[in-house]
Amino acid sequence: MQTRATGGKDLVEGGPSEEGTTLLRGGFVYSPADPFATAMVVQGDTVAWVGGEAAAASFADGVDRTVELDGALVTPAFVDAHVHATSTGLALTGLDLTGCRSLRHALDRVAAHAATHPADRVLLGHGWDETAWPEGRAPSRAELDRAADGRPLYLSRTDVHSAAVTGALAALVPGLDALPGHAPQGPLTRDAHHAVREAAYAAVTPVQRDAAQRAALAHAAAQGIGALHECAGPRISSQDDLTALLALAARGGGPRVLGYWAEPVAGPQDLERLRDLRAAGAAGDLFVDGSLGSHTACLHAPYADAPATSGVAYLDGEVIARHLLLCTQAGVQAGFHAIGDAAVDSVLAGVRAAAQALGVERVRALRHRVEHAELLSDTAVAAFAEFGLVASVQPAFDAAWGGPDGMYAQRLGAERAAALNPYAALTRAGVPLALGSDSPVTPLDPWGTVRAAAFHRTPAHRVSARAAFTAHTRGGWRAAGRDDAGVLVPGAPADYAVWQVGDLLVQAPDERVANWSTDPRSGTPGLPDLTPGADLPVALRTVVAGRVVHRRQEQPNG
């Protein structure tokens, strides 16, 4: 892919630009305006034209620069609808236990990290998953004390709903052993986990936080992501963390960031806090329950591998209903984290109460959202559609933990696990989907996310690659109340990515649909081959508001 200046103006390769006009030609442009488009014109921060090569030639002499695509694919930039940027950056630059093959491997990695970070006040790590280890258990406090040489250490489980800690970190939280979820040697959950997480992240300096946030935004841009929904809150990060991230993003040079603040709204002071934080809504990880991996997702029936528990309910019905009522009255988007069927039903009861008090249309207009929404009954799916709720979902969860032998089946049994993440049912019912990663729970990997939705481990829950792609681009913007973005048509924001790809094709879960979609008469634009095992596209360039925020460096020969 080459860039050349025309019209007497110079363009420094790799430098962002918000001025003038750019013509991209000689590739494939994924656009509903023209399913066979090969070229696009961008004026400043806006898409000005999409069309074919013959028309593109007429623009060539009048633009400021031309990008020769050389067969590359241009798509809308992805939107990751659920991210924790600082935690993502810390995992990218620090102790990441994702992929550890055993408990011994994890402890060795902890010891190596402690040895190479002698100045860190608190050691921070993430990503262990005991269900994949031959030992079948989490690290004990005593084992971590030895590995970390007695220093304070916080290690979040892959789902970030429990953590293993050292005695030195536990000592920083007075009264920890009296909090719900405390275990002397095992992982901490519930209030005990929230307390140690707060203590651990309080040790992160502003300089460390800034470096982590920059690393997360740069990594997102390199994956073709043009916008992130930061899911912040008092139990997850801090107000300073959110405001610093929003300020960093506002300076440009990376993806856009929309910040959600997860704190129950109980009165006018809470709504005022949202305005002060410049939050997009009172939503995100407002925990109604926890996670399946940590046995804290709230279920109607007990866990198959822990029959003494059905999970944890963090919010009662009155708090949920009041939050939804006050947010709807104020015209503020509300939302919750809800994974288990009991948690989802609690949210729906609150939505119904708000609709009865204020009318269904006022509720629908705000596009209240539910994060994760994994275990849904048919009645719940219908209620999502009735009230216009957005399902903010993470297909990589199914890729990581689904299937008859996965963690979901361990926790729930194969039959109940097969009901999780019913994307096809949601799509058929007209429920808007917004796809994300919940990074660092699963990686920032948009094409992998689309693949996971299209090749769900439960075939009945699969959606077409096109539907999944739309949910990961336009769906993220619609979840934030914007219908003009996430699509390459004249007048839309110039947020796009350029991809190195192989053949383009149409993949649909139903053979009849696939056969029609590949017929030229259908006008269906193709997408890269996302069949499991196929190479995923590589982002050559990511552009946000007309500014280049990522450009892939050329690889040396050989």
What features would you highlight for this structure?
558 residues; alpha/beta; Urease, subunit C, domain 1; Diaminopimelate Epimerase, Chain A, domain 1; TIM Barrel; 3 domains; 5-stranded mixed β-sheet; 21 helices; globular; Metal_Hydrolase; Amidohydrolase family protein; Metal-dep_hydrolase_composite
Describe it.
- The protein is of the alpha/beta class.
- It folds into 3 domains: 2-77 and 488-501 and 537-551, Roll (Urease, subunit C, domain 1); 87-201, Diaminopimelate Epimerase, Chain A, domain 1 (Roll), CATH 3.10.310; 206-479, Metal-dependent hydrolases (TIM Barrel, Alpha-Beta Barrel), CATH 3.20.20.
- Helices cover 35% and strands 18% of the residues.
- It contains 21 helices and 23 strands.
- The protein has a 5-stranded mixed sheet, covered by helices on one side. A 5-stranded mixed sheet has the order 3-7-19-22-23, with helices on one face. Strands 9-10-11-12 form a 4-stranded mixed sheet, with helices on both faces.
- The protein is globular.
